Amino acid sequence: MxxxxxxxxSEFKEANNNTLNHLDTELRKIRAGKATPSMLDGVMVDxxxxxxxxxxxxxxxxxxxxxxxxxxxxxxxxxxxxxxIINANLGLAPQDNGEMLIISIPILTEDRRKDLAKxxxxxxxxxxxxxxxxxxxxxxxxxxxxxxxxSEDEMKTAETDIQDITNIFIKKIxxxxxxxxxxxxxx
Length: 187
Description:
By secondary structure, the protein is an alpha+beta fold. The chain has helices spanning 2-29, 54-57, 78-87, 110-147, 152-185, and strands at residues 44-47, 50-53, 58-64, 67-72, 94-96, 101-104.
């Protein structure tokens, strides 16, 4: 029985780590107003007839907190890179200087910052729901073990352990969300 409980705890932790990783990925997609190369993740460039990720055909860097640079490996695809960035609907307008693209990141308005903070909070709530669903699955499994002969004390100990793990993950989610909200609201 102890092996089954440990396996349930391990699977519970793994499921919650996956939830945290997913939350982290989703939070990175929420732009906080600072220029980061990851803002252009997902931009696909028409490169000799096939779609390629921008970061595979160009060097993406930051000039300062509000400016990105995109320098294609081949100057001939500079206009294709600009077109791809515009078509990605990121609200960015690349400027072509003949050598590279310079992208100024617009300053976020206070209302937009609040909207982004709400989006971050909503992602956090979704992650908490996922953790709670994982907890329910783990507790249901432990209750099944009780029917197979698990003692009352072992069951209570396992339930307490699952709740402690849940509390740890909920705290991690809260920390991620508050850090992202602070990042969004900081000018």
